[in-house]
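Sharing a chain and its predicted structure for anyone who wants a worked example. Both blocks are below, sequence first, tokens second.
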Amino acid sequence: MTTTAIIMMIVAMLTIWGGLIAAILNLNTRGNASAEDIARAELQRDL
């Protein structure tokens, strides 16, 4: 592999892994609000 290909591979891997880490940190700090909203909607169901 050429140097350019290795650099592009590293950039792509950092982008993918960086996004995964950012998503995990975001879920840990803010929590999963969508699951709470679904639970609340099930409890407040109008008939």
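Comments welcome. The two ends are 64 Å apart (CA to CA).
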